[in-house]
Design goal:
The protein is mainly alpha-helical. It has 13 helices and nine strands. Helix 3 runs antiparallel to helix 5 and helix 3 crosses helix 6.
Length: 394
């Protein structure tokens, strides 16, 4: 590998490298400070996507549901891996170390990969690197085609399968979901932008891909609002009937706007959603003193008082959501969210072991967590991507 290999552990409790769904939020620091290392990580995923490993492994979540031993391939060809492996094996060659869920079925990872390719290309302080974009393009195409096969009803949008199959890996979604659907639309916009640049500037023939992705995009956009918009915010999914406001439902719109792609949703719908999220998941949850809970009823009460992920405040998700508020010009809300989380981390003595999750009952989980570096995204949106001295050297 002429570029070398680099990886950051998700955390010490989940000790595998560069979990892609987590670095969607947590890699802003690497991108802004050491962009060539960020490219090395993305290239590693580009090499891993076409690979396959038919080793059978038991999937942990099914044991927690009393369903016994359910096995799956470690890595399916074309699937975007969750991670680049673990230090106790052969990382970068043996990917998808985690087996709590079957990550070959996840509905966010392909979109996460495509968005990070385009983000690194557009925003690296070293400037736009067309050779990097060309290296990552075949894997981006393969990843999107793989994910499209989960569009079971041909509405243009991949369907979640009912087992947790996205970054909230203890939170089942069913059918088209706001979180994965918005990421998918943003990723298609990014893929179209890639295809156009590669054809115009390098002469690559990307006409077929542009035609395909444009068709998927038109269909997806037509159905996203029709299936999920309830007049105030987006339903968490189309089939479960779960009556909660999901705080990070428009991460895809945040990424689209951040990268100056066509927004996933209208400005009116974005602002209405952000208002509902603030009221339900922040203001009405511990009076705004803890941060934004992942998902609550519209009145701020929990759907399940014993739930895990919905009732947790995820530090990195909060910093990502705060960045979205900042991007939409709502700086006071962004500051309030960030301040609440930072205060809780410091008050709990966790400032040198920032966790993934904190709760209203003074518990925390997964220290030294990669996603928490999403606070660098807040810096970027606050300064309009002001270059940090020295970062232009890579």
């Amino acid at each position: 590998d002429p570029y070398g290999r680099f990886g950051v552990l998700e955390c010490l409790d989940y000790a595998w490298y560069e979990s892609l769904d987590v670095r969607l939020y947590g890699s802003f620091a690497l991108l802004q400070l050491w962009p060539e290392l960020d490219k090395a990580v993305i290239r590693s995923f580009a090499r891993a996507i076409p690979a396959a490993d038919a080793t059978q492994r038991p999937i942990g979540w099914y044991f927690t549901q009393g369903r016994g031993r359910v096995e799956a391939d470690r890595k399916v060809k074309g699937a975007t891996p969750h991670d680049l492996g673990a230090p106790n094996e052969v990382p970068f060659d043996a990917t998808n170390y985690t087996a709590y869920q079957d990550c070959n079925l996840w509905k966010d990872l392909a979109s996460d990969y495509v968005l990070q390719v385009w983000r690194t290309f557009k925003l690296a302080p070293t400037g736009e690197d067309l050779s990097f974009l060309a290296e990552c393009w075949p894997a981006a195409v393969q990843a999107l085609h793989y994910l499209k096969q989960f569009d079971v009803n041909d509405d243009g949008l991949p369907d979640n399968g009912g087992a947790p199959d996205q970054t909230f890996d203890d939170w089942p979604l069913k059918g088209v979901s706001a979180y994965c659907g918005a990421l998918w639309i943003a990723a298609l916009e990014a893929a179209l932008a890639m295809a156009q640049r590669l054809q115009l500037e390098l002469g690559l023939d990307t006409g077929d891909e542009q035609h395909t992705f444009s068709g998927w995009l038109e269909q997806s956009r037509a159905n996203f609002d029709a299936l999920l918009w309830n007049g105030e915010y987006y339903d968490i999914d189309a089939e479960s009937g779960t009556p909660v406001v999901m705080a990070d439902q428009l991460c895809g719109d945040f990424y689209a706007r951040l990268l100056e792609l066509p927004p996933v949703v209208s400005e009116a719908n974005s602002r209405s959603t952000l208002k509902a999220v603030k009221e339900a998941c922040f203001d009405n949850f511990a009076g705004g003193t803890l941060g934004v809970a992942n998902g609550l009823r519209r009145d701020g009460t929990p759907l399940d008082p014993n739930g895990t992920h919905p009732l947790e405040v995820w530090t990195g998700i909060n910093f990502g959501i705060a960045s979205y508020y900042r991007l939409m010009g709502e700086g006071k809300t962004a500051e309030a969210i960030c301040s609440a989380v930072v205060t809780q981390v410091y008050a709990g003595g966790l400032q040198f072991r920032t966790p993934e999750a904190i709760t209203a009952v003074n518990t925390f989980r997964a220290c030294h967590y990669l996603r928490a570096m999403a606070i660098w995204g807040l810096w970027a949106t606050h300064t309009d991507w002001e270059t940090i001295p020295g970062a232009e050297r890579g």
